[in-house]
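Issue: ligand-bound run for pyridoxal-5'-phosphate - logging full I/O for the record.

Environment: standard queue, default settings, no custom constraints.

Inputs:
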Amino acid sequence: MKENRIYNFNAGPAALPLPVLEEIKDSFLNFNGSGMSITEVSHRSKWFDDVINDAIARTKRLLKLNDKFQVLFFQGGASTQFCMIPMNFLKQGQSADYVNTGTWSTKAIKEAQIQGKSVNVVASSEDKNFSYIPKDIPFNSDAVYTHITSNNTIKGTQWANFPDTKGVPLIADMSSDIMCRAFDPNPFGLIYAGAQKNIGPAGVCMVIIREDMLEMVPDSLPSMLKYTTFSAKNSMYNTPPCFAIYTIQLVMKWLEETIGGLDKMEEINRKKAGDLYSFMDSGEFYRATAEPDSRSLMNVTFRLPSEELEQAFVQKALENGFGGLKGHRSVGGCRASIYNATTPDAIESLVDFMKTFEKENG
Ligand SMILES: *Cc1c(COP(=O)(O)O)cnc(C)c1O
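Outputs:
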């Protein structure tokens, strides 16, 4: 492969589109005629203003966000959002609904509870090791918000359709599937995504917030933990993670101009995931762990007949240029993370490798 790059199935940080990496490389020493690298220009310069504003404009176009939504950039990862959300929106005497679909939802719930906030876990798939997305959930109509994890990176499940919360604002952790498909953003009060899975490098978390949510933020919070601070200053109250935001800008440009938008991206992702799942379904050797109607388009979790074979599989794959196929340390097994940047060609090569491995070891 070009530049000796491997097929990268890492869960995060993860593969980025090659044209994006090439553009970064080409412009790295002299960004846009500035005579400086993007890592050297001031965040108060016109150069950076253009970068962040273009990243925002492209995000809004791709997700079809109306003027009620703002696109913001935070540090501290998706994990800081776990604590900021209850801190900013939940007052004494109020409560929020949470759906527990795995490791990251569990952490989000915990961060609300340690602040003494009132949390209702209205559904959980823990009874079957988080292998499915709950249905027919008894949402509370007086909840301030309903929190879901749209894609469960570790367990390999994804909401196929978002739940109807009858006007209660949805808040979604979309860290591992933002921009993988088109959806209606209007029921969402807030969407957040650590960039390092599907839209950029580590170091920045994208937050999409609806105006009515900003009105709920109390003045009493520390500046850096308030959504209103970032909203008032176009995410530049303090120094933002400039390089990470620049990379997001290029990924959004790639999505718009090379891929052709989210409908097209979704079509490609459905084909990629479909090819991999249907290959596994066609035999007995590889077993996808998520229930069929809850399978993720982004993180394909699977088992082989034994742990020894799983270890051998991961090792042999690495020797053949396929990286990152080991499952998360908390669940074991195997996982192929096939984010937007993973090409159909990488899936085809992986399936070929899996067939060969099965022949030799099955
Ligand atoms: C990776 C991940 C996180 C944690 O993100 P950080 O940026 O490391 O804090 C949270 N939620 C989901 C769904 C993830 O995949």
